[in-house]
Structure to design on (459 residues):
């Protein structure tokens, strides 16, 4: 088929999770390979692509806003929508601002599909055009990424979720669990290493379920395999053996998967960064049960202790939902007290968002938006205190920092990088340290919480 993308101007806007970011980057590279030219999203373009999110009502609203903004910017452009908002909302009630709707398991085909649409439009066809997978038949491999000038590369290695938390629409939008083959991941990691990447981040919709689609139903549910080790460990170990990759970072993990055996195995893997994003959602057992989370606060705390016993000063980060249906003031107090007890390095706080089609949407005891907003503000304040406390303890310590970019903070320009625990460090120096690992010592905290540092000179 004729290439209708040559010299077309395109813009991409991504909402939501790191998996969406990985997918958008792969689509971007496909379009560039076809001769299309990228422009900023607020510029006139021939093609706009919005990779949407549907994790909250706010995400839905932002998705709609970006689609309509694209239509306003260039009324004659081709507007393409993909992602979870599209998967869940657009089959039955398509947005009139959109020309092309692409489901989650067909993102790898977007460039080909858009080219076919342009060809059809030239031949007199009219939209809208819908492309949804009929069934989830396995992991959809996307074209490999190229490092370009990035020091850190994000790889999607898993998709789908079987957990069905009562508040979450994602298992319906993303489908059942599936995984990328170890061979495919290693091939891309080798390429990224040859292009200069120093760190890779392995991401998935439910990363702890990596490789479990071939296991029994009980193993999938418990996240513990009966023989051998968790497939995710096998993958991480294999990635660690690729020459040139100095760091490996993991996306969000399920607490139940972090058994003593798993933690000890991870602690022995070269280059694994001691930053663990363990999804919590609430520090109150009653709320956890209502959410269909399959652990207690005490069990979560035990996992954190296990990790801290195996790693030096690990960063424990998490997500918290406040204002869940039926959450009392006592429940909320219990959750905030738990956050203080754990001492998280960072917490992402979300007010509960009703999602049509979920169990939580039908629960009694829905709280007002005002109450949810108030509790979110209080939880954020507590979380910020804990974050700054964790970073304050980095003062006087040495850290290996991978520098990535420059930024102006408090009126001064700094090189910015991240320690293995994903704490941000700022440094001023005469020789450009970007895409290099430097050993630094924390000096103080800047106004935004970044650790001001100076390079440690070996004696």
């Amino acid at each position: 088929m004729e290439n209708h993308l040559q010299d077309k101007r395109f813009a991409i806007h991504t909402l939501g999770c790191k998996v969406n970011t990985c997918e958008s980057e792969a689509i971007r590279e496909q379009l560039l390979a076809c001769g299309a030219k990228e422009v900023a999203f607020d510029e006139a373009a021939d093609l706009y692509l919005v990779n949407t999110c549907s994790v909250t009502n706010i995400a839905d609203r932002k998705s709609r806003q970006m689609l309509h903004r694209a239509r306003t910017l260039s009324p004659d452009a081709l507007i393409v929508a993909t992602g979870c908002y599209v998967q869940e909302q657009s089959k039955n009630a398509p947005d009139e601002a959109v020309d092309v709707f692409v489901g989650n398991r067909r993102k790898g085909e977007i460039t080909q599909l858009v080219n076919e649409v342009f060809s059809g439009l030239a031949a007199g066809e009219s939209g809208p055009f819908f492309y949804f997978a009929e069934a989830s038949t396995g992991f959809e491999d996307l074209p490999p990424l190229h490092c370009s000038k990035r020091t850190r590369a994000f790889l999607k290695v898993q998709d789908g979720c079987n957990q069905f938390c009562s508040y979450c629409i994602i298992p319906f939008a993303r489908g059942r669990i599936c995984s990328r083959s170890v061979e495919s991941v290693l091939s891309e990691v080798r390429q990224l290493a040859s292009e200069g990447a120093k760190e890779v981040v392995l991401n998935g919709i439910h990363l702890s379920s990596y490789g479990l689609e071939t296991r029994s139903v009980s193993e999938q549910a418990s996240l513990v395999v009966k023989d051998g080790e968790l497939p995710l460990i096998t993958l991480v170990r294999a990635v660690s053996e690729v020459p040139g990759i100095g760091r490996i970072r993991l996306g969000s993990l399920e607490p139940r998967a972090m058994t003593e055996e798993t933690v000890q195995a991870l602690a022995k893997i070269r280059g694994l960064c001691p930053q663990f994003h363990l999804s919590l959602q609430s520090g109150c057992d009653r709320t956890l049960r209502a959410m269909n989370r399959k652990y207690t606060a005490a069990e979560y705390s035990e996992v954190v202790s296990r990790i801290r016993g195996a790693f030096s000063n690990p960063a424990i980060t998490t997500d918290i939902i406040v204002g869940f249906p039926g959450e009392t003031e006592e429940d909320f107090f219990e959750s905030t007290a738990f956050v203080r007890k754990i001492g998280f390095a960072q917490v992402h706080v979300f007010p509960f968002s009703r999602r049509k089609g979920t169990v939580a949407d039908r629960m009694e005891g829905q709280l007002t938006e005002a109450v949810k907003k108030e509790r979110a503000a209080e939880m954020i304040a507590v979380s910020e205190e804990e974050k700054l406390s964790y970073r304050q303890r980095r003062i006087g310590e040495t850290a290996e920092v991978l520098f990535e970019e420059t930024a102006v903070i408090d009126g001064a320009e700094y090189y910015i990088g991240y320690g293995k625990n994903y704490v941000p460090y700022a440094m001023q120096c005469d020789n450009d340290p970007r895409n290099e690992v430097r050993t630094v010592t924390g000096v103080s905290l800047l106004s935004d919480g970044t650790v001001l540092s100076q390079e440690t000179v070996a004696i």
